[in-house]
Amino acid sequence: MSQFDNVSIIKEANVYFEGQVTSRSVIFQDGSRKTLGIMLPGEYEFSTDEKELMEISSGELDVLLPNSDWQSIRDGESFEVPANSKFQLKVSKLTDYCCSFIEVMDWVSALLVGLLASTLLAYFTGAIGFSNFIN
User: Which CATH class is domain 7-102?
Assistant: First the structure.
């Protein structure tokens, strides 16, 4: 996707490593968030609380993800960063990127959503009636 419509952009830049890495935050109507940024050549280490999808529009870098070997990433390629982790980058060429923050449900939330969906499906298909809820 080369364009995002109906979004809000945070004017203040995210600046890292004395300006070697910069980005702007884009907020979508559903509350999801991405950053669009530029990385100059250099070596960097980042940490993240959220799962991330890093899409490289142009440039060249090597990435070291947790429990992995170095991987080369080029124009049009992407990589995922696990939540609550650190990763290292060796940027060899000016790199234009889009970082998507992926919300990950914990297992309790996923279980509750699944139970609610199953109950509603059973109710609306007639498998259970209203009396099941008030007894």
Answer: mainly beta
